[in-house]
Automatic annotation (TrEMBL):
UniProt-listed Gene3D superfamilies: Spore Coat Polysaccharide Biosynthesis Protein SpsA, Chain A (3.90.550.10)
Descriptive protein name: Glycosyl transferase, family 2
Entry keyword Transferase: yes
Keyword Transferase appears in the UniProt entry: yes
Organism of this sequence: hydrothermal vent metagenome
Residues annotated as domain Glycosyltransferase 2-like: 8-135
GO MF annotation, one: hexosyltransferase activity
Length: 342
């Protein structure tokens, strides 16, 4: 291993004995080989450390740290402090990087003068294919979507190491939810520092979805909403959006919904945001509304009437509004499952 590798891969691990072998293999078999792999065993109580050590005997590009459990955020920041690479690549101990991931990301970062680069992912669970997930490719679309939802697949990102001189992973008030919010906070901090962002519209990572993730992600929604509000309040034109968004969530008034759409449209035009992400944001807000009715759908249609939209998504939104479905109702959850399978 070179003294200063091109890439430092950081992989926190906690009780990951079932999957970490495949995760490590996917890194060691990259077509771009100039990297170090930093694995922090965060106090695992299974055979995770034993499996990690079996790889160090075969490959000197690995750096292994084992210590008591400190949590994900501490493990990430600790890894970054000892990283020597020009770029830092994230990796989770249960995911699989495709062979050309590093090669493609370094090329994309350099060719587009970016500070952070993600990619599309293929989601799977227990060897079952759950489909592809794509993210916005350019800087302004990423930052617009970031107002309300995550714009990156965290374990698929590569970041210039110099970025971490200005930002770092931060632990939230609810530390048990850090696994689902620490990345969103980091992207927001990077956006506020005007770092340039991009995503490759190509699958470079297989992302494992666990059965317990759905309920935990639901609990994390309020945490990410708080981060989003903070982000909005610091942007030019964002305070009015944050104000009307807060009003709408607390009292889903049709007039407030119309004004919120209007302020988002102004922001969209100012920042030249792609139509599809404007549509996605409005749909996201409606899905989280405390109540719905057909008028909300008509207002949504008014603001998106000249924009290209997928038929399935439009039918889903219409049915939700026609049936006055609350987002926690059993019928809403059933329709959501059907929609996600289409």
């Amino acid at each position: 291993m070179s003294q200063f590798p091109l890439i430092s891969v950081i992989m926190p691990a906690y009780n990951a004995e079932k999957f970490i072998g495949k995760a490590i293999d996917s890194i060691l078999n990259q077509t771009l080989s100039d990297f170090e792999l930093i694995v922090i065993d965060d106090g695992s109580t299974d055979k995770t450390l034993q499996i990690i050590k079996s790889y160090t005997e075969k490959d000197n590009r690995m750096v292994v740290i084992s210590r008591k459990n400190k949590g994900l955020v501490a493990s990430l920041n600790e890894s970054i402090l000892i990283a020597r690479g020009e770029y830092i690549a994230r990796m989770d101990a249960d995911d699989i990087s495709l062979p050309e991931r590093f090669e493609q990301q370094v090329k994309f970062l350099r060719n587009n003068n970016l500070d952070i680069c993600g990619s599309a992912i293929r989601q799977f669970s227990n060897e079952k294919d759950l489909g592809l997930k794509h993210y916005p490719s350019n800087d302004h679309d990423i930052k617009f979507l970031l107002l309300f939802v995550n714009s990156f697949a965290h374990p698929a990102v590569m970041i210039k190491s110099c970025v971490f001189k200005k930002v770092s992973y931060r632990s939230g008030k609810h530390k048990n939810l850090d696994n689902y919010s620490e990345d969103y906070q980091l992207w927001v901090d990077m956006a506020l520092e005007n770092f340039k962002m991009g995503n490759i519209n190509q699958v470079l990572l297989k992302y494992r979805v666990h059965n317990n993730q759905i309920s935990v992600v639901h609990d994390a929604k309020q945490v990410t909403a708080d981060i989003g509000f903070s982000y909005l309040s610091q942007l030019e034109g964002g305070k009015e959006i944050a104000r009307y968004f807060s009003l709408f969530l607390n009292d889903s008034n049709i007039s407030i919904w119309n004004q919120l759409c209007g302020h988002l449209m102004v922001y969209k035009k100012q920042h030249k945001v792609n139509d599809m992400y404007f549509v996605e944001v409005l749909r996201h807000i409606l899905r989280d509304a405390t109540k719905n009715n057909f008028i909300y759908f008509l207002v949504y249609r008014k603001w998106t009437q000249h924009m290209k939209k997928d038929f399935t998504g439009e039918v889903y939104m219409l049915v939700q509004c026609l049936l006055f479905l609350h987002k926690k109702s059993k019928l809403y959850q059933l329709l959501k499952k059907i929609y996600l399978k289409l």
